[in-house]
Amino acid sequence: MTCHNCRIEMVKAGLYGRNKVQRYKCKQCGKRFSEPRQKPFGEDVRLPKETVALILNCLVEGNSVRSTGRLCGVEKRTVLNILKLAGEASERLLAEKIQGVQVQDLQLDECWTYVRKKQGHLKLDEIRDETIGDQYVFIGLERSSKLVVGWHLGKRDRINTEDFIAKIREATAPGQFEVCTDAFAPYANAIDGGLGDRANHSQIVKVYSKPEEGRERYSPGHFIALEKAAISGTPDLDRASASHVERKNGTLRQWCKRLTRLTYAFSKKWDNLKAALALHFAHYNFCRVHGSLRITPAMAAGVADHVWTIGELMNA
User: Fold this and answer.
1) Which of 48, 177, 253, 254 is exposed most, by the fewest CB atoms within 10 A?
2) CA distance 312 to 286
3) Which residues in the chain come in under a pLDDT of 50?
4) Is 290 exposed, middle or buried (0-12, 13-18, 19+ CB in 10 A)?
5) Whole-model pTM?
6) What pLDDT score does 290 carry?
7) Where do the structural domains in the chain lie, given as residue ranges?
């Protein structure tokens, strides 16, 4: 390290503070300086980087906020503050890195969750609040690389569907590719208006029998048939499938505690849910090795050249 005043090499002068920050001393002027440290997410985070990395590791591995606080020896609000910073940084990272990606086969789906309370329990003064009640995570997955090309959080309506498709257009490169969705009606107009020059849109509808008596809430009926239809363009119906993105929904519920079924760890604030989702998708794309690919989805899509660590995710 070089002295700011004398411009000569300084010598080590021991460690300082509980975080063990290295101190340096100038032989000429006698001034002491601390070793400059890169702050997580570029923000004023006072925790050691190792503790921040441990908090993020716990969150992306399916721990709740309170259990993460107990494991890491920090308060609940500290975990939430780190989650918010990580979510904002992850959202910027995904928007920067995933642009103009070459895709061949996209699968789109929505995953249900809720904030504070379910839609049926909303009071009259809460119905118009878009941040309370049922929420849907729109996910766009590339079939071969398993890359989450785009995602969006909001109500399951036309406006949010169009916003989601706009993100998909920004993330994908020009050229023809297959797009497969379920029978959610707004997809047809949104894809025709936002991806009409690129997408060959096919639709899949799964037909089930009525569920057994007493199991209506959590168990579907027996699978009967799979109906496919061409909506726009010239899609290849033989390859039309939504299985991969539906499997991604299962991964999301397994590794993001807020979306786990029948738990007290559901989100109480919309912003915290959005931050947790951004962190999950960034970690999934860049850090987690996919079981079938043996590499990360970002590597398979050519967006990254190695498996990222949590530390790299913090500094990116």
Assistant:
1) 254
2) 10
3) none
4) middle
5) 0.86
6) 94
7) 1-37, 49-315
